[in-house]
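tokens incoming
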């Protein structure tokens, strides 16, 4: 299971985010991108010492500041159910690793023009 597929499945569900500085955010995930930047709504921000709380309607968290994500078990179960479909390495549509040599059929490959 990939972290981004887990996050995309968690959209609309509640989650807890802990930052590297110790602050925590509880709220509902609205969106995420490939850098793990996330948007959340109905957020409760708790200071690192746990003494202060703020209620924020919406927040953006940069992915490289995230230390920990707590996602409900029901979301994890949803990802595990989705994963077997279409997963696998056989027949993945990949034809090769790069441009390589030749492979152009009757149009020639490397070298001069024939004929």
């Amino acid at each position: 299971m990939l972290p981004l597929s887990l996050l995309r499945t968690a959209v609309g569900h509640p989650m807890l985010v802990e930052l590297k500085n110790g602050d925590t955010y509880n709220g509902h995930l609205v969106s995420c991108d490939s850098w793990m930047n996330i948007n959340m709504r109905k957020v409760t921000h708790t200071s690192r010492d746990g003494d202060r709380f703020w209620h924020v309607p919406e927040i953006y968290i940069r992915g490289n500041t995230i230390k920990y994500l707590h996602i409900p078990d029901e979301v994890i179960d949803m990802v595990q159910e989705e994963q077997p479909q279409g997963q696998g390495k056989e027949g993945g549509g990949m034809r090769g690793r790069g441009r390589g040599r030749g492979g152009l059929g009757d149009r020639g490959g490397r070298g001069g023009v024939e004929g």
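note: The two ends are 53 Å apart (CA to CA).
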